[in-house]
Structure formats: C-alpha cells, structure tokens
Amino acid sequence: MDCNCVSDLLLTPPVPTLWTPGIAFPDWAYKPESSPGSRQIQLWHFILELLQKEEYQGVIAWQGDYGEFVIKDPDEVARLWGIRKCKPHMNYDKLSRALRYYYNKRILHKTKGKRFTYKFNFSKVVLVNYPLLDMANSPFLLAQNHFNGGAATPDCSPVTPEALQSLFPRLPESGRGPSLFERSAGAPGPDGDKLRLDTFPFLGSGAPCYSKPPSLLGPYPRNPSFDYPWGFNPYLPGAFSLNNCPKLPPGSLYSSHFYPNPLHSSLSQLPHPFSSLLPPGDTTGAERGQTGGTNGQPPRLCIPPYPGSVPLGRTELGNGGTGVGDRERGETNTGVTGGGLGLGLGLGLGLGGLSVGSGGGGRQSPSERRKGVKQDPESDSELEITDLSDCSSENENEPDFSLGKEPGLGGRSHLLEAKSRALGGVLPPLSSLPPPVSPHPLKSLVPLTPPPSSLPPSLSPSPSMVDRHRETEKLKLAHS
DNA sequence: ACCGGAAGGA
DNA sequence: TCCTTCCGGT
C-alpha cells in the first residue's frame, strides 16, 4: 500500500531549546503522553506544519488576513493528510469535514467567499497565556469598539500582533527554537505541552511572515473604522513595521526565527517587572539587539518566557464559529482584501493583494488550474465575526481550568500594572475612554507565578489600568 | 463548495 | 476525543 504512515513526514523534532511558553493549548488539541494512544497528530497541527513548509507553498499557504490560509491544492492536502493518518481513501471532502469539525472548537473558521480558505483563530489562546495582553478589558480598546456597534464581547477581543506591537516597541529577539511544540521543563505533564507562539506568523509580529512576501503589506492602508472593528486600531503610535519577512528556509519546519514574537523583546525593554520576566541570557540578547544569530537576517523577536507557564487545561479559542454568517455568500468583492474582521485576530492588516500563485515564482496548483482561487472576492469584514455567543461564561465552568485555582489576581495585577504602564504611551486621552468594563470572562486566568508580595493581591484589573492610565496622563501633562 | 448530522472506529 | 465515512441539503 502507499500508506507508509511516515511518522516523520512533518513531525515535530522534539528538540527542546530555550523554553518559550508560547501558547497553552487546550487539552483537546494536544493530548500529552499521559494519555496513551492519543498522541495522534491532529489535523490542524498538520495544517500548521504544512503551512510552514516551504515546499508545500503550492499546496497550502498563508494568505489574506492573519491566520488565514488557503488550500491551493485540496486534493494534495487531503492526500498528504491521508498518508499521515494512514487513510488512503482520504479526500478533500472528508478532510473538509474534519476541518468543519473545528468550527465548533473555534480552532478554525471558514473564510466566507474564499474558496478553500480557512482561518485559524487564536485570540483567546493569546489572552489566556499572556494576561499581560489581555486587552479585552482595556478601555483603550473598548473605546474603539464602536466600530462594531459594541457587539464585541470582552473576551473575544482579539489580540493582534499590531496591538502587541503598538503597546510595546519592537526589539530584536534572541531566543528561538525549532519545534512546533516545546515541552516546558518546569511544567511537565499534560500542561507542559505548549505550542510555540512563534508557530503562528500572524501572532508573531507585525510582519506576517508569509512564505511569500505579501505584496500589499502596507501597515495602515485602509479605513480603520471599517477594518478594525474589534477595537484595535493599528493607526497608533509605536506601530510595527511590516518589513522583513524572509522566506522560511527549506527544512526549517518551525523556525521561530521566521515567526518572531514581539513580546519577548518588548518585555525585555520594559522596566521591571517585565524585564525580569526574561531569562538572563535572553535579556542580554535582546539588549544587544541580536538578530538571532543568523547573519543578514532582520532583527527577530521571540516569545517572552512567561513565568509559570499557564497550564490551562483548556483554552477556548477565540471565536469563529460557524453559524449562519459563516455560510458562503455570493461574491461581494470589495476590491480590497477582506479586512480582518476575522475574529481570530480580528486585525485588519489585509494582505489582500497577496496573490496566491502569482509572483514569487508561485506555481499554480491543480486546484487553481481547476477552479482558480478567488482572490479577495469579498471583504470579510462584515460577516466574518461570528459566534460571540459562548465567549462569556463557559470558561467559568471549564472543568479543566486549573488557573482559577490560583490565589488571587496578584500575578495578573502585577502584569496589568506593568501593562498599564506600557500602555501609557499609546493610550488615548482618558477622556476618550469608556468606563471600565466588567470583569473579563477569563478573569480566572491568572498566571501561576505568585504575585509579588509588594503588590496588592486583589487589584481589580480594569480599574487598575484606568488608574494607571490616569496617572500616566497626569505625568504626561506635568511633563508638558 | 460547503454545511452539519449521524454513526462508527481507534 | 478526534476524526473518518457517508450523506442529504443548501
């Protein structure tokens, strides 16, 4: 048979490197060794792997918004998946069924109107693992939620690379690792498995790092009120550059080198406590402005080692449900790429002009020949926001939720304080801010790291931020 | 093409 | 639990 079951076709090399907590995955997404017989690769892992393999660019590739990818050759992807799973009769119909299965889990959602195009959804993953970045409570962000008519629920607010980078200035990175998953040395077992944040170019930095450099990566090319309804407006100071998006070198499956993360360096640049969050070596590297050791490469960012990896039993991925609005609609081509209402990251750095098979020597896949992959047939801005329904309370009752057991919000407050401090530079005048919002549904997600004793353990996040911001504003006024 | 229900397997 | 397989429907 042709079922080699090549386990290493795209397998992750279990090479532990500098541990970067990255993203804590829901347990349903990645079962640990402690669950015997359940370590089979999951489809979305496989998809991610393919997406990072340059040689599969003709088969599947990032395209469009962050997290959005297009299956250029459905049959080939299905075939590869079939090989991987020893299912010789796999086809795209079955594969797509499996992908649809992810809708409810909010791992994926369909990009409407774009054939064979799906989108990963990672916002909550980021929120959970980086409460620092939990901007859902940020009045700053909510202040701009009028874009979507206030329909956004706090914990569904996306954390975008842009947002991160607008919060923190960019710095070179120092650490990296080759593996998609890294096992936390300090958190072995079920919770030790983390997906590298830098696995996801759309989370890594402002630069999407598509294998093929997007041709229309202008940072702020479009109408913010239309493209950034989730509250984040990249038209902010301290923005990110969208340069430096080298191709993923062949053979380098999970090179974080190419999927930099802004947090790492950002933290290293921040005053205490953020700078202390970085391991000594990293901080040094970041301070030196290391490019990651590769000559000629642009500066890289990497993941901030988050103290006390967040061992979530389950992390609800932002959103993206299926539902009515997800059905394919007709063609409503706006001429501009779908602006990123994709819930997942909800950002609007449309890569719209990025053509799939064109330029960069992209070859045309069979499916393109067959049907032709529509390019930006519509703006996703309008209906791609889907299913906010369960963004609110389910985490509260999450059985696997270990975080909530952590005492107090000290750790969170700790981070929030620093975050707030960091936000000071980019926050709009306080007068423009809406009142603090109610506690985040993910409020129980606190870092495991015990809070510093110097900080009040029960600081309320939102008021804290507002206060901080108010202080910052005062200082700024005083300075001026 | 895409959807989701249903049943079943590992 | 995560698909795989099948299928009727849109």
From TrEMBL:
Biased composition range(s): Basic and acidic residues: 366-377, 466-480
Top-level taxonomic group: Eukaryota
Gene3D superfamilies named in the record: Winged helix-like DNA-binding domain superfamily/Winged helix DNA-binding domain
Biased composition (Pro residues): 448-460
Location of the ETS domain: 41-121
Pfam family, one: Ets
Compartments (UniProt record): Nucleus
PANTHER family reported in the protein's UniProt record: ETS (PTHR11849), ETS DOMAIN-CONTAINING TRANSCRIPTION FACTOR ERF-LIKE (PTHR11849:SF165)
Name of the featured protein: ETS domain-containing transcription factor ERF
Native source species: Anabarilius grahami
Lineage start: Eukaryota, Metazoa, Chordata, Craniata, Vertebrata
